[in-house]
Amino acid sequence: MTLPDREKRSGLKDEVLAGEYVLGALSPEANAALAKRMKTDRQFAAMVRRWQENLGHTVASEQRNFSSYMDASTAHALRRPDDKLHRTPYGRFAILSALWNSVRFWRLTTSAALLWAAVLLFSVA
User: Fold this and answer.
1) pLDDT (tens digit, 9 = 90+) per residue, 54-85?
2) Looking at residue 76, what is its pLDDT?
């Protein structure tokens, strides 16, 4: 198996540096040095532009997803308890189902039962 030549490894290193530069993962000194290098090295500047374009699409889609998530969560937070869900029999069943599946409810019920049993035990004696 042969190792890639030095120029190919250097290109890979430059690709990683361009990505880190665009992501802002480098120190301020390294950023300044790479900004100077971009002015003189066209190939490196092209790598940085390619990273910016590729990540630009990702950032835009993430912002759209985040804004739609925030709209949905805001709409959910603004929902009033007198919604149709709570006025129908199925809504009441949903509330009872949520209570039935609640760990907090069962812990409270168990604590109350144990307390009642202790009161009965010590009041008889």
Assistant:
1) 887 776 777 777 777 766 666 655 555 555 55
2) 57
Helix (H, G, I), strand (E, B) or coil at 3: coil
- Identify the three-state secondary structure at position 24: coil
Residue 118's CB is within 10 A of a number of other CB atoms, namely 10
Q: Give the number of other Cβ atoms within 10 Å of residue 48's Cβ.
A: 21
User: Residue 24: left if φ>0, alpha if ψ -120 to 50, beta else—which one?
Assistant: left
CA angle centred on 120, ends 114 and 121, rounded to 5°: 85
What distance lies between CA 65 and its chain's CA centroid? 11
What percent of the residues of the chain are helix, what percent strand, and what percent coil, each to the nearest 5?
A: 85, 0, 15
Two tokens at 16? 């990683």
Low-confidence ranges of the chain (pLDDT < 70): 1-11, 59, 70-92, 125
